[in-house]
Amino acid sequence: ADLVAEERSEEILALDDALVRLEEEDARAAQVVRLRFFAGLSIDETADALGTSPRSVDREWVYARARLLRMLCNEG
What we know:
By secondary structure, this protein is mostly helical. The protein has helices spanning 2-25, 27-38, 43-50, 54-75. The two termini are 23 Å apart.
């Protein structure tokens, strides 16, 4: 059980690091990730929270997920 927890901790730290780097590159995209992934908001709820259109949020969400995946794959 400790080994599984340790592996998860490394994944979480890598995701956090990638999210910090994304925020440096594109603060809005990082904000969308936090609201969608961590807060569990829908596209429409995220758009309302950010004062933008659902289409813009969807575009940022797609970009952010792809960018984070590239960052995480290049790490390991």
